[in-house]
Write a structure and sequence with these properties.
seven-stranded mixed β-sheet; single chain; alpha/beta; 5 helices; 17% strand; 11 strands
Length: 246
């Protein structure tokens, strides 16, 4: 068997024809790095951390897809190879440092090596999203983009108290409504925390959402709350209820 046949696809599209108006994206679903990259020079334990993927996000996204009957686009490779929610060429697209960890395998890349990662991992994912959204547009079907992510409880020594955050920019009505449907500040649901949407550091919301005139938001869930099956199932159900209410 050809080794390439054993590797995961760079993108998986689940429930492509789902009836829901929501289109789910999970850009940091996987921590997989092919053997040829030699773990990018990192220790094995580093490849299980947030720097490599969004812990719990893939399971929440798949549960949410099933509950809503919504299409879901999932990444097949680690964000350390190239981040699918970053503009190509940005400082964090192929990170040399993630949080406080140096990524040795990303330090001395040639322009050709960088473009190879764009071609192998970034473009197939973005093409799948574009095709899905184009098909919905052509069929006059609604599309509201929801990215599913997770964040660490502590970042560079600073504790993050929120249970979840809804990140949005132009989609103020939708983003605020979703945060409120999840319980708002009383339930430790933040708006535009622990991150903010910016053109220099985000791709999904600005490109797939705002540039098409679509509502778009990212859901960030604290990782310790979705570290096991009970947590991911609970948050998938909670999100499904909130999105239906919006």
């Amino acid at each position: 068997m050809d080794l390439a046949e054993c590797l995961p696809a760079p993108v998986r599209v689940l429930n492509e024809a789902g009836a829901s108006p929501y289109v789910l994206l999970c850009e940091h679903a996987s921590r997989f790095i092919p053997e040829e990259y030699k773990g990018l020079g990192l220790a094995a334990e580093d490849l299980t951390r947030h720097i490599a993927w969004d812990i719990g996000a893939a399971n929440v996204a798949q549960g949410l897809s099933a509950l809503l009957d919504a299409p879901l686009v999932m990444a097949g490779y680690s964000r350390l190879l190239i981040d699918l929610n970053r503009p190509v060429g940005s400082a964090t697209s192929i990170p040399e440092i993630s949080e406080t960890t140096v990524i040795p395998g990303n330090l001395t890349l040639t322009p050709e090596e960088r473009m190879q990662r764009v071609a192998l991992y970034f473009e197939p994912y973005q093409l799948a999203v574009r095709k899905l959204l184009d098909a919905r547009r052509d069929a006059a079907r609604a599309a509201t983009i929801v990215g599913v992510h997770s964040f660490t409880r502590v970042y560079k020594g600073i504790a993050r108290p929120w249970h979840a955050g809804i990140l949005y920019r132009k989609s103020r009505r939708f983003g605020h409504a979703l945060a409120q449907a999840l319980g708002g500040a009383a339930e430790l649901i933040a708006e535009n925390e622990p991150y903010q949407i910016e053109d220099e550091s985000d791709y999904t919301v600005p490109v797939h959402g705002e540039a098409r005139g679509l509502d778009a938001a990212l859901v960030e869930i604290r990782q310790d709350l979705i570290a096991d099956g009970d947590g991911t199932a609970s948050w998938a159900a909670r999100l499904a209820t909130a999105l239906v209410a919006c």
